[in-house]
Amino acid sequence: MQKKRLFSRIAVASVAALILAGCSSGSDSASEGALPEIEMMQELGTGEGQVNVVAWAGYVENGSTDPAVDWVTGFESETGCKVNVKNGTSSDDMVALMKTGEYDVVSASGDASLRLIYGGDVAPINTDLTPNYADVFENLKMQQWNSVDGVAYGVPHGRGANLLAYRTDIVKPAPTSWGSVFDANSPYKGKITAYDSAIYIADAALYLMATQPDLGITYPYALDQAQFDAAIALLEVQKPLIGEYWGDYLKHVASLKSGGSVLGTTWQININLAKGEKTPVEGIKPIEGSTGWSDTWMISSKAKNPNCAYMWINHIASPEANAGVAEWFGEAPSNEKSCALTADPNHCTTFHAADDAYWEDVYYWNTATEACLDGRKDVKCVPYSEWVKAWSSLRNS
Amino acid sequence: MLNSLATSMHRKPRLRLAALLTAPVLWLVVAYIGALATLLVTAFFTIDSFTGNVVKKFNLENFYDMFTDAAYKNVVLRTLGIAIGVTVICSILAIPMAFYMAKIAKPKSQKLLVALVLTPLWASYLVKIYAWRTMLEPNTGVVDWLFGSLGIHSPGFGGPAIIIGLSYLWLPYMILPIFAGLERLPNNLLDASGDLGAHNFYTFRKIILPLIFPSLVAGSMFTFSLSLGDYITAQILGGKLQMLGSVVYQNFSINLPFAATISMIPVTIMVIYLYLVRRTGALASM
């Protein structure tokens, strides 16, 4: 009995010690608005022998998926930097991975990039050290999601629109509007799919922007409480129609193939993969426009291999590599010179690389903040953390 | 050298005990209780709404969110329902199987049956669940293909599919304890009951069930707790349905403190469950 009591005392004491240790360790977190000061690299040194990359699936291909698809091996032998890639499954996942400090480089979408910048997780980049930056389309540089106060935080990667996928053999007539996935009387009830992330709230907002002008939405990432509630209400209407929400793109492709999902939001690469498996499927940009992404290669503020990291982001922005990624992933390249190098000479036309009019109604993923991103000063907007809570609540109700 | 060490150890029983117990106690306190304690502490932190960095400042916001949002009450009830469903189905399937294995099968086939019950554990969890996905796929799946003409259709992805998948996964954990319990049960009790005129079912209810009850509880602790924390099966077979584990999975990268708060729920449920089990006295006779 005596011993038992002694042991439980020791246990309690050690737990208490752990709790205290947990509380006392630094609580320095950047609050909104305060930009952490992080040094930019001034001079490129020799490579460290490796670089650890967090990327979207399909961005870093070394020939293991398809022997013909390889823009990594050449880089590795040229620079001596071995590329270790970790595919992120979502923007949230990528932010979490970058916070570990284990990775040097990330291909961040606009709903991750600002969080990384203000979280002090990525460093501003010195564009003099990445010569290929000069050839990037001007309208992709120095945007809201890849720069702060005129300082670039990364090299633009490429852009694409989130498309409406439909099975051509089942969905007739072919859809033209996002309305088809929000229609409570849809004949495809139970076979509609949607992207499983809080950022999908913006898709509902985009549809409302076109169909309910009274709400006064002008930018789907700047929603005040009333607009936000309307978007959530629309998603509640949509929920009974959904068979499965998709987060894993491979599972999504399998569902398109099996007919489990016949209609819903998708990426071009999913359409390409599904078509590769002989699935009769098409993807369109509906009349309301679309949400989309414009990704940015960023360098960690805690990068252990900064030189290789710079070499990598310069390489991935090079015309050859950029053309390779753009064609494999099915997106518009960011480098002007890529268009001359794609295997399909019409790739840049198909994906509207230089067609500014096409991108006018594509709203790239962005991180909603309390200060409205559309410039309104009289109201407070719903910040992204609230989007996450609302999404979690919607998914679990 | 080794000899003298052994001698000094022999003379000092306290030192011997310390050397023996340091590693396991350290493991228990640091890795086991420590992890739980960190979880508990994290549940009271919050995050910076913009950058997602954890702010280490005590507050009850997460608990407030958890208790006021009806969605989380629903997900708790749903998860409990699934865990109970899986446990009931596993018990119903496991008792006759274990009884046959322990009492009816010949010794040779008994060993074979035990091996067969264990074989599913050799395959990866994911492979088994994806196999069930192909089985239950609506219209094109194996179930619809085989039985569709008989009017039996796959329930589609959702709650029933999760229960089927989890019951399949955890069945061995229910069969083995019951099998062990039945093996210890003396045959002459069953014979005596029969001789005195009891029906089979009466014997089962009055003799077998009370005696294997501790084994049933042991099995249910596996099936219940494993189902309570699962999220992968829900992701693959659940369609749009979510379980408690899914909420934790969804939140841990964005809002670690909230994920920690949510994960206190299954911990609490298990503590209550174990307390109830202890009250029945099943733990003592295990």
How do you describe this structure in short?
The complex is a heterodimer of chains A (397) and B (286). Chain A is of the alpha/beta class and 397 residues long.
As residue ranges, the low-confidence spans of chain B are: none
Distinct helical segment count of chain B:
13
CATH arch. level architecture of the largest domain in chain A: 3-Layer(aba) Sandwich
Please give the share of residues in helix of chain A.
25-40%
**CATH architecture assignment name of chain B:** Orthogonal Bundle
What would CATH call the class of chain B? Mainly Alpha
CATH superfamily membership of chain B: MetI-like
Count of DSSP E strands of chain A? 15
Assign an overall shape of chain A: globular
- The geometry of chain B reads as globular
* Poorly predicted runs of chain A: 17-32
CATH topology of chain B: MetI-like fold
Q: Any idea of the CATH class of the largest domain in chain A?
A: Alpha Beta
Largest sheet of chain A: 8 strands, mixed
- Kindly report how far apart the N and C termini of chain A lie: 49 Å
Work out the radius of gyration of chain A.
23 Å
Total number of strands of chain B: 2
**Helix content bin of chain B:** over 70%
User: Helix-strand pattern of chain A, N to C?
Assistant: HEHEHEHEEEEEHEHHEHEHEEHHEHHEH
Structural class of chain B: mainly alpha
